[in-house]
């Protein structure tokens, strides 16, 4: 039997609470230090409050892909399903491999974690901020604004910088930097993109399914497909937010508004527009040509971007050259990028503590034995759909276990 040890966890979010459950299950005396007035605030907001816990599909991690896949190979969807089952939480799989609690309420996820920690006698201190971390033989000392706390080992789970009002403000990066770890510059990810608003003025609130590409001149840096939302300052929606990590001032967003209802290139689309002219809109005003394909205000903006003067013109008066130009704009409606929304609007942080010096099996630092890290504090970020929360839970569990799988007694009474 491994000697009972004291484990301190800095941060009471998804990774921290999962680490606490796993460590306590192995017999550790666990203390969670949380800066906010209660644990799990950010967890409550996940999946629009429904709790998108994980994704059973192919892992999608634009940041830290290799490390994330190593972690998930050790504690992936099947292991997580058993973890939640052990805590009494039933899951339901929805589209695209997304898993939610059967209740569709993130609060039940937090309750399952809290009740297990309460049962295991885990100490939770809230409203306490960790300021430094150093070795103080024979263990580690976490200096806080309420005095020193000493532990045999420490797991840093303080999150990144996204949604600081829910507890993530980057304050725990310094704990790991002081031990020699490298901080990859944090930046907002999964956040709305700000663009030139002149081409989309009056479109705020309109949603459309489309293809979205981030362009640097003629080079496509990244592309997504899905629902896009026009806003007062640019674009949002999942497909836009998943492009944010590649968006830079001066680059362009290319929107394929014909994605999903027209195949091929511009001339194929021209043929479809010709068909609409001859079969549907013959003899009617030209401004009605895109009716049924795009919302009216968006159709007007597209025709304007194509340089078409359609007022007082019949649909059949449009020339092949005009239709070809219209088809090109439908395929490539361009907006100049001004930047992205900040951390307040971001769902996750890109960047963080570099993963090179951590063991994916135990999440332990190679530079400071007895110090672990898990979750968003690390340089790992995934797409929407439960990937970020899945990494947080998986890495937290591995950090809590610290290689002691055989001592994780799931059926303890």
What would the principal axes of the Cα set say about the shape?
A: elongated
CATH fold-level name of the largest domain: FAD/NAD(P)-binding domain
Question: Order of strands across the biggest sheet?
Answer: 12-15-14-13-16-17
Average pLDDT score: 93
CA-based gyration radius: 25 Å
The helix/strand series, from N terminus to C terminus, equals: EHEHEHHEEHEEEEEHEEEEEHEHHHEEEH
Largest sheet: 6 strands, antiparallel, barrel
Q: Which structural class fits the helix and strand makeup?
A: alpha+beta
Quaternary structure annotation: single chain
Characterise the protein shown here.
This protein is α+β, with helices and mostly antiparallel strands and 413 residues long. It folds into 2 domains: 6-188 and 346-407, 3-Layer(bba) Sandwich (FAD/NAD(P)-binding domain), CATH 3.50.50; 193-340, Translation factors (Elongation Factor Tu (Ef-tu), domain 3, Beta Barrel), CATH 2.40.30.10. The chain has helices at residues 14-25, 41-44, 65-74, 77-86, 106-119, 173-177, 238-241, 266-279, 296-305, 320-331, 387-401; strands at 6-10, 29-34, 54-55, 91-93, 98-101, 123-126, 130-136, 139-144, 147-151, 153-156, 183-189, 193-195, 207-216, 219-230, 234-236, 252-256, 333-340, 348-353, 371-373. The strands form 5 sheets. It has a 6-stranded antiparallel beta barrel. Strands 6-2-1-10-19 form a 5-stranded parallel β-sheet, covered by helices on one side. Strands 3-5-4 form a 3-stranded antiparallel β-sheet. A hairpin with a 3-residue loop joins strand 14 (219-230) and strand 15 (234-236). Helix 1 packs parallel to helix 5 (106-119), helix 1 packs parallel to helix 11 (387-401) and helix 8 packs across helix 10. The longest helix is centred in the C-terminal third of the chain and has 15 residues, at 387-401. The two termini are 18 Å apart.
